[in-house]
Specification:
542 residues, alpha+beta, elongated, 56% helix, 19 helices, 6-stranded mixed β-sheet
Length: 542
């Protein structure tokens, strides 16, 4: 097969009984074999660690500081590459490298493409593109939600289900918004009264930075009026003179007379005296204006009162005229929102009604397509499980229409089985053994693998509690799944191993080391014609 995404190699160092081993895998069916206790289950444990499983410090080999598991994947699948690119783990060429280090102190490090990542992301990536079928998956099969998910997968309705679920989340958010708006409406009148009071207080003052500055200047002038007038009179005395003494103006007149009378000496400078005289006149006029200011104490009281109003609002709304004006904008905005609350509620009611109607239509269409697909899936599943020696067994999907929309629409699904013809159908969780659940899951993988996003399938304990003839059927089924993706399965049955393209043989040796016996697991890979030779040797052991 021309696989676009598969596991190429696995390096295991200082992991339980593994000291330092490298395992090569191929596309197609890879079987991990070995005697009981050889360590073949540790290979799957290492793979589970690479897929985001829990890191337990107990796996660190004695007398070492850490365990290292490193997996190298061939990747020509654009969906896988795009997913990692989007999440910040670019793929160079066609190789993805995942590494995990587990330290003796219990800490662990995780890397994808040599970049540190979280275990949660690694697990999410693995769930999306790698399928582990084991005891946990058997338990998942007992969940009705998972059974419905499998039906939707078969019916190719997963995208439609995603659209429905997003629409349902949107509707629930609208309902929360509606509840908040309804509660706001109850408190609206009280809040509007408060807003109007605050706005009226600001509007009465009608504040501006320029006015506040002018008021402060006037206050300063009025408060210092007596001092100002005394100074002005002193200046006028100096300008006009008094007590028989001429002032500056008188001296200027005398100078002008002298300049005019002696033109040959000072006539050229008469204009200078004229300019000085004009400026002194301007100064005298300015002093007169200062003296003519209205000194009414009531004016000062009005200015002080208005400045006090500025201070109160500044203290209340942020400390400056600008903060008062910004508060006015905010209050007006909130007032507008509250006043439009009825309009918003009406609009939200209309949107909710439309969303509910659309979701109901989507759910009904989903149920119709599920009903059609359930018959086909039941028929195909029955055929597959009978090929796996569940002779006479029949699988059906019972669908029930719900009265209210749920996360999955209007459908409840349940796998039922008749394992003994004529004895009636029962839920598989009530009658199926572990071995039968494994075979049902394998049958589902056969049916779904041809159009699955999953490319790598790991099977654990797939042959638990079955005999040779059934093992042959399971081997054929695993080979069929391997047509559409890489299969890696642990088995102790030669009837299953004979269908593998690669055998990963795990063995265990006890070696003397520094006068101490140490157990070490080793691995060898077998390809091509040697596979059948190894299977025959395997058959002789069992």
């Amino acid at each position: 097969m021309n696989a676009s995404f598969y596991l190429k190699s696995l390096i295991i160092q200082n992991f339980a009984t593994f000291k330092n081993q490298s395992i090569g895998f191929k596309p197609g069916f890879n079987a991990i074999i070995g005697e009981t206790g050889s360590g073949k289950s540790l290979v799957l444990d290492a793979l589970q660690l690479i897929l985001g499983g829990r890191a337990d410090k107990k796996v660190v080999r004695r007398d070492t500081e850490y365990s290292l598991i490193e997996a190298s994947f061939h990747c020509a699948d654009e969906k896988v590459k795009a997913y990692l690119e989007q999440e910040g783990y670019p793929v160079e060429g066609r190789e993805i490298v995942i590494k995990r280090l587990v330290y003796r102190n219990g800490t662990a490090k995780t890397y994808i493409n040599h970049l540190s990542c979280t275990v949660a992301f690694l697990a999410s990536f693995a769930r999306k593109f790698i399928d582990l079928v084991g005891q946990f998956e058997n338990q998942k099969l007992l969940s009705e939600n998972y059974q419905l998910h499998l039906l939707d997968h078969f019916a190719k309705q997963l995208p439609a289900v995603g659209v429905f679920q997003q629409g349902l989340r949107d509707l629930r958010q609208m309902r929360r918004d509606h509840q908040e708006l309804t509660q706001s409406k109850t408190l609206r009148e009280q809040r509007l009264d408060y807003l109007n009071f605050q706005l009226q207080e600001i509007e009465r003052l009608n504040p501006s930075s320029h006015e506040e500055e002018e008021l402060l200047k006037k206050k300063h002038l009025l408060v210092n009026l007596e001092k100002t007038q005394k100074l002005c009179f002193q200046i006028k005395d100096n300008l006009q003179g008094g007590d028989g003494q001429p002032g500056i103006i008188g001296h200027l007149k005398q100078l002008t007379h002298l300049f005019t009378k002696n033109p040959e000496l000072l006539g050229d400078h008469v204009e200078l005296l004229s300019d000085i005289d004009d400026k002194v006149s301007l100064l005298e006029a300015a002093i007169d204006r200062k003296l003519n200011i209205d000194a009414d104490p009531d004016n000062l009281d009005l200015i002080v009162d208005r400045l006090d109003a500025y201070q109160r609002l500044k203290k209340k709304f942020g400390g400056s005229v600008e903060s008062i004006l910004q508060m006015q904008v905010d209050l007006l905005k909130e007032k507008g929102l509250l006043e439009s609350l009825d309009v918003n509620l009406d609009e939200l009611n209309n949107r909710m009604a439309k969303a509910e109607k659309d979701l109901l239509c989507q759910a009904q269409e989903l149920h119709q397509k599920r009903t059609q697909a359930a018959q086909r899936l039941g028929k195909e599943l029955t055929e597959k499980i009978r090929n796996l020696k569940m002779t006479g067994a029949t699988i059906k999907l019972q669908l029930e229409v719900l009265t209210e929309l749920s996360e999955n629409g209007l459908t409840r699904a349940c796998f039922v089985a008749e394992t003994n013809p004529g004895e009636g159908f029962f839920k598989i969780k009530d009658i199926a053994s572990g071995g039968e659940l494994s075979r049902i899951l394998l049958s589902l993988r056969q049916i779904l693998s041809s159009h699955d996003s999953i490319s790598i399938f790991l099977f654990d304990e797939i042959d638990t509690g079955i005999g040779g003839e059934t093992g042959t059927c399971i081997g054929k089924a695993l080979a069929e799944v391997a047509v559409h993706g890489q299969v890696i399965a642990i088995t102790h049955l030669p009837q299953i191993a004979q269908f593998a393209e690669v055998l990963v043989v795990v063995s265990k040796d006890i070696q003397a080391q520094d006068r101490e016996a140490r157990t070490e697991s080793t691995v060898r890979e077998i390809f091509g014609k040697m596979v059948q030779k190894e299977v025959r040797a395997m058959a002789q052991l069992f």
